[in-house]
C-alpha cells in the first residue's frame, strides 16, 4: 500500500516513549541543574515576599531566635541551672532546629498546595523543595549574627573550631531536604500529613536535646534519644561553637551516613512519584 505524503511526514516525527526516558534520578538532577536560575529566583521571591510588609524586615530573622532564646532561658534556666551560659547553649541548638522545622514545613506546603501550578507549566518538581530549603538556609545565615552576639555577651570564647560549622550546616540541609521531599510525597496522597507534621515537630523538638543535655536523662531513655537523627546533627552544630571542640569521628560518620542515606532514599521515592503530583493535588 502506498504511503501518502502526509503519513510520511508523521512517520518522521520523533515519538516520545516514557519507558525510554532513562534513569529517572539522573534526569531529575540534570533538570535541576538546567533550572538552577529558577531556584535562585524562587529563593529571592520568598525572602522578598516574607519581609516586604514587615516593619523590621530581614532583621526579624535575627530577632526571632533571640526572642525565643530569652523566653526559653527564663523558663528553663532555673531547671537546668548546672549548664553554664545557658542562653548560648539554647541558641546554638535552637537556630539549627528552627531552620529544620521552617524549611521542611515550607517544602511540604509548596509541594502539597502547588498542584494548580504543576498543571500549568513544566518544571522539575524538586525545584520547589530545594528552593524552600534554600530560603531556610538564607535565614539560618542571618540567624548566625545574633548567635555570635550572644556568645560574646555571655562570655563563651570564640575558638577556631567555629570554622567547622559549614559541615553540620551542609548535613542539616541534606537531612531537611530528605524529610521535606519524603513528607511532600506522602502529603500529595495524604494531605492530612501537612497538619500532622506540626504536631510531630512539637514532639520531635522536646525529644531532641536542645533545651537540656542528654546526660541528665536515665540511661534507658538516652538510648532512644540517641537514635533520633537530629541528635548528632544538633551536637555537631553545638560542640564547635559552645564547647569549642570538634565532634568525634563516630558522630561525624553516623550523622553523615544518616543524612546522605536519607537524602538518597527520599530523592528516589520523590522522583518516582513526581509525575503523579499534578493529578493528585
Written description of the protein model:
With 281 residues, the chain is mainly α. The chain has one domain. It is built from 13 helices and no strands. α3 crosses α7, α4 packs across α7 and α8 runs parallel beside α12. It is globular and about 55 Å long. About 2% of the residues have low confidence.
What is the domain total for the residues? 1
Total count of strands = 0
Report the structural category: mainly alpha
Percent of residues in β-strands: under 5%
Distance between the termini: 48 Å
Please describe the biggest sheet, giving its number of strands, its sense, and whether it closes into a barrel: none
Topology of this structure?
Layout: H1 5-12, H2 24-34, H3 36-51, H4 59-76, H5 86-112, H6 115-120, H7 126-154, H8 166-189, H9 192-207, H10 219-225, H11 230-243, H12 249-273, H13 277-280
Helix pairs in contact: 3-7, 4-5, 4-7, 5-7, 5-8, 5-9, 5-11, 7-8, 8-11, 8-12
Tags for this entry?
281 residues; 73% helix; globular
Write a brief structural summary.
By secondary structure, the protein is mainly α. It is built from 13 helices and no strands. The chain has helices at residues 5-12, 24-34, 36-51, 59-76, 86-112, 115-120, 126-154, 166-189, 192-207, 219-225, 230-243, 249-273, 277-280.
Amino acid at each position: 500500500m502506498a504511503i501518502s505524503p502526509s503519513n510520511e511526514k508523521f512517520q518522521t516525527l520523533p515519538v516520545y516513549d516514557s519507558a525510554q526516558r532513562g534513569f529517572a534520578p539522573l534526569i531529575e538532577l540534570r533538570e535541576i541543574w538546567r533550572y538552577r536560575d529558577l531556584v535562585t529566583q524562587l529563593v529571592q521571591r520568598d525572602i522578598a515576599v516574607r519581609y516586604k510588609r514587615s516593619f523590621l524586615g530581614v532583621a526579624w530573622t535575627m530577632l526571632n531566635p533571640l526572642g525565643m532564646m530569652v523566653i526559653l532561658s527564663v523558663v528553663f534556666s532555673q531547671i537546668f541551672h548546672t549548664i553554664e551560659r545557658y542562653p548560648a547553649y539554647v541558641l546554638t541548638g535552637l537556630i539549627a532546629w528552627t531552620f529544620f522545622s521552617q524549611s521542611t514545613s515550607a517544602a511540604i506546603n509548596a509541594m502539597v498546595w502547588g498542584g494548580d501550578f504543576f498543571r500549568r507549566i513544566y518544571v522539575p518538581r524538586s525545584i520547589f523543595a530545594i528552593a524552600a530549603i534554600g530560603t531556610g538556609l538564607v535565614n539560618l545565615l542571618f540567624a548566625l549574627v545574633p548567635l555570635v552576639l550572644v556568645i560574646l555577651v555571655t562570655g563563651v570564647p570564640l575558638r577556631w573550631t567555629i570554622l567547622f560549622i559549614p559541615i553540620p550546616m551542609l548535613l542539616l540541609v541534606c537531612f531537611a531536604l530528605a524529610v521535606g521531599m519524603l513528607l511532600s510525597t506522602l502529603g500529595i496522597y495524604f494531605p492530612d500529613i501537612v497538619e500532622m507534621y506540626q504536631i510531630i515537630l512539637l514532639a520531635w523538638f522536646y525529644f531532641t536535646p536542645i533545651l537540656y543535655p542528654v546526660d541528665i536523662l536515665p540511661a534507658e531513655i538516652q538510648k532512644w534519644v540517641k537514635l533520633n537523627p537530629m541528635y548528632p546533627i544538633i551536637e555537631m552544630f553545638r560542640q564547635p561553637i559552645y564547647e569549642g571542640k570538634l565532634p568525634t569521628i563516630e558522630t561525624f560518620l553516623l550523622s553523615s551516613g544518616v543524612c546522605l542515606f536519607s537524602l538518597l532514599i527520599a530523592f528516589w521515592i520523590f522522583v518516582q512519584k513526581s509525575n503523579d503530583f499534578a493529578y493528585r493535588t
